[in-house]
Records
---
Amino acid sequence: MTTVSTTAATHWERLWTQGRRYRQVDDTENGLLEDHLGPGRDRPALDIGCGDGSLVRRLAELGYRTTGIDCSSSAVALAAAQGPGSRHEPVWWCMDFTTDDLSVLPEPAYAVITCRLVYRWIDDKAAFLNRVRHLLVPGGIFWVVTEIAGRRAASDPLQSLAITPAQAELLTAGWSAVHSADLDVLRCYALHP
């Protein structure tokens, strides 16, 4: 495991150790995931910001060889403690995708990279997207689930969790194909190099 020493890690570690949990993947989102990613056929998949590992385990159920990474060691420990749930046992790493050495990951490249409810928190989004592109195989898919601005009432305290139109434009620029689907306040993107 890589040692993480960023302010992001400190922030998320505190929340995970305090018992904070996040929106679970529901049946509608699972259906979109399956439609856009298809069967794993033993191809490698990476989940950035894996949290409790629920998306990693779902990818494993679809037949992907999965790796989950998170900057919070408590989140990674929680994910690992829940067991594989399928014949593909996930690999878990505590690391900061934005700063750590990605060559330590178990695969040199991935057929699928997922990023669920994480993109909004990335400071340097352009650098983050470059790192993703570097790890994505030709013909791969970058699956992003993020909240979109303007979907919550102005008085809703969670309104700040959304990405702006400019951030959404940066996310979708430079891909050969962009597919999206809306889920209430969220948007799912399937981005192809």
---
Amino acid sequence: MSRFPSRPFPSREPLHRRNGKIRAREVRVLDEMKQPLGVMPLTDALRLAQNRGLDLIEIAPNATPPVCRIIEYGKFQYEESKRKKESESRQPANQMKELQLTANIDEHDFKTKLNHAIGFLAEDMKVRVKLRFRGRQRAHKEFGFQVVNRFVQEAAAYGKADAPPKMAGDRDMHVIISPLPRDQRAKTVKKPEPAPSAAPSAKAAPASPAAADAGPAPETT
């Protein structure tokens, strides 16, 4: 037995075979714009790509027959890289977000955390809601349960708790809310735009010349 553990080496097989590396005898060919050109012998497909000054790239090796595309290899690599980045950008960066509550949370903070949870659920992320009991709060855990249960109820139009809230140790309570399917989920309401400010009041009209000439009213004795 070897003293040193064997290390797996990455395969040298290219991700996409091209030109002379393609092994199939017959291939289904697409042109540069992905339009089908039909099934033909590999030699004919290679000749067609060569006549166009392009490469023949195998894009579906497991199909019967394998599918190849006629395209310049550098352009093909760019398209694949762009497609991969777009696919990754559509996936949430984190599949789960965490929000922290307290047993004596005030109404404003409660609504703020709830709006954050709704935003995460609308982006197809799970939300872990945690509540930590501090000091004497541990003697009255029912208040913490009330807060968490209310949170789950008010988020029910966007997500559903995987299980009832439960304790993790003596101080922490948590619950996980999973997003509802899109067709069952309430639509998020956009915040209303602020109303335009009222127009400034019109300045007082200047006194008429006649009134100005009249001078101050005489005092009465």
